[in-house]
Amino acid sequence: MDPMLAIAHKLKTAESVLLFPHINMDGDALGSSIALCLALRQLGKNCSILIEDDIPEYLAFLNKGYCIRNAEQIPDMSVAVDCGDVSRIDRRKEIFYSAAATACIDHHLLHADFAQDCLVDSAAAATGMLVFQLLEEMGIQFTQEIADALYVAIMTDTGSFRYSNADRRTHLIIARLYEYGLDHVPLCNAIYDNVPLTQVKLEAKAMDNMEIFANGRACIAHSTLEMIEAAGATPDQTENIIDRLRSIRDVEIAIFLKEKPDGNYKASFRAKSYADVGTLAYRLGGGGHRKAAGCTVAAPLEEAMRILMNAAEEELNR
User: Fold this and answer.
1) Would you say 121 and 7 are in contact if contact means Cβ atoms under 8 Å apart?
2) Summary mean pLDDT of the chain
3) With CB atoms 3.0 to 4.6 Å apart as the test, which of 40, 113, 190, 221 could cross-link to 47 if both were Cys?
């Protein structure tokens, strides 16, 4: 059976459903999960979103009691949202697999099936687009809140529709969301024009340590735990730095490193036009998309930077 039809059928027959966005959730993971949660509650299902880490501050306005930290019962069905592989829900996988039915909805290029039914479309700009199609298949009555959640999912994963993954299909779905009451202005204000001063200070510190390399075609910057604390910021307030790096003239590959509590570094990659950072990240044990990807580097800062800079130069010279 077609994966979308199979998932739609199982969701309709399940009484309880748990949704699993990936760890370090972004707008697509959370927005898609909330839209699906709202739709399933509309059908009378007992549905919540099980998370294992804090919701980023810039997305907190979306959560109106949908997210939980602990599952009170084993669900009839578990659905992973925007997850390329099971490691993205590692601390919740026992609960995920306890359900009689499991599914995954995802758009990552390098996807490893880990559920009974996997709806995967790497050509989709965001998982939110797949959730939109699934809800249409299920005959859901779209509300403004569902439309708003899907807009956040799609907008954030396309860089406000600036990235090359935003295509005709993307904009047609957005047009449909307006028919269901979408009001994009307060959503954009909440995400992009509500930046705390601590975040501005942290971004300034990170930009101050930026290095340009590969004859101006790449750049790299970082934030350490000490920098985050000194700015009075939180780790999620680094999210916009990678896009600022990508915006620099002539830069094709941008890299941002964020120190994790274990001393390792989370690396984010962005490409502007021709480079494939998805493949670059995969070679380093990570994954993602051609123009946006990431990985974790288990090394001190200077060594991590050397590894990533060499990998970026290799990709640019391919």
Assistant:
1) no
2) 96
3) 40
